[in-house]
Amino acid sequence: MAAERDTAPDTLLLVFARAPRRGRVKTRLIPELGEDTALDVHQRLLDRTLLQAAAFPGRARLMLDDHDDRLAAHAREMGLEVGLQHGGGLGERMNAALRDGLQEAARVLLVGSDCPVLDQTYLSLAVDGLNQARVVLGASEDGGYVLIGGSDASVWHDGRFEGVRL
């Protein structure tokens, strides 16, 4: 897999994920499904996303919200880098990750860990979009977004996501 990654050194894929903790993931599902099933849903979606990240032709990094040695080791075995999110709220952490990532690569894509439609075609379209724009967004069916990417670090200044409901 390392040889494939060398073909796209200008793009870094960041996968934002919560460490799998019972009662802390998929909390909106817990009232209907219970903590164990919500954790299972989270883990299945995360596993699928990590497989896509491992197949990405550029560098890929799992960005955890908290230390998880087991998950970090698993991600490394798949050929992924592992890091920790830093900052206050989700928007601040995303902004910092994009800004910092653009110090390492010409393009950065940031995705969540729970988008079942995420595949290599979707990621390729996002990379292509950054050939014509400084920012790309991948819309989700619920009105939010499942991907955000950038190619210009100056866009990701402090406060970029302030007031945005995430």
Per CATH, what is the topology? Answer: Spore Coat Polysaccharide Biosynthesis Protein SpsA, Chain A
Question: What profile does the largest beta sheet have?
Answer: 6 strands, mixed
What is the H-and-E element order? HEHHEHEHEHEE
State the total count of DSSP E strands.
Answer: 6
Distance between the termini: 34 Å
Count every helix, treating DSSP H or I runs of 4 or more residues as helices. 6
Q: C-alpha Rg, in Å?
A: 15 Å
Range of helix content: 25-40%
CATH superfamily: Spore Coat Polysaccharide Biosynthesis Protein SpsA, Chain A
Strand-residue proportion: 15-25%
What is the CATH first-level class name?
A: Alpha Beta
Shape: globular
- Strand order in the sheet with the most strands: 3-2-1-4-6-5
Could you say how many structural domains there are in total?
A: 1
Spans where pLDDT lies below 50 across 5 or more residues: 1-7
Sheet/helix structural class? alpha/beta
Mean pLDDT: 90
Gross CATH architecture: Alpha-Beta Complex
What key attributes describe this structure?
single chain, 166 residues, alpha/beta, Spore Coat Polysaccharide Biosynthesis Protein SpsA, Chain A, 6-stranded mixed sheet, 6 strands, 22% strand, globular, disordered N terminus
Could you describe the 3D structure shown?
By secondary structure, the chain is of the alpha/beta class. The chain has a single domain (2-155), classed as Spore Coat Polysaccharide Biosynthesis Protein SpsA, Chain A (Alpha-Beta Complex), CATH 3.90.550.10. 36% of the residues lie in helices and 22% in strands. The chain has six helices and six strands; from the N terminus they run αβααβαβαβαββ. A six-stranded mixed beta sheet has the order 3-2-1-4-6-5, with helices on both faces. Helix 4 links the parallel strand 2 (58-64) and strand 3. The chain starts with a helix and ends in a 16-residue tail after the last strand. 32% of the residues are buried.
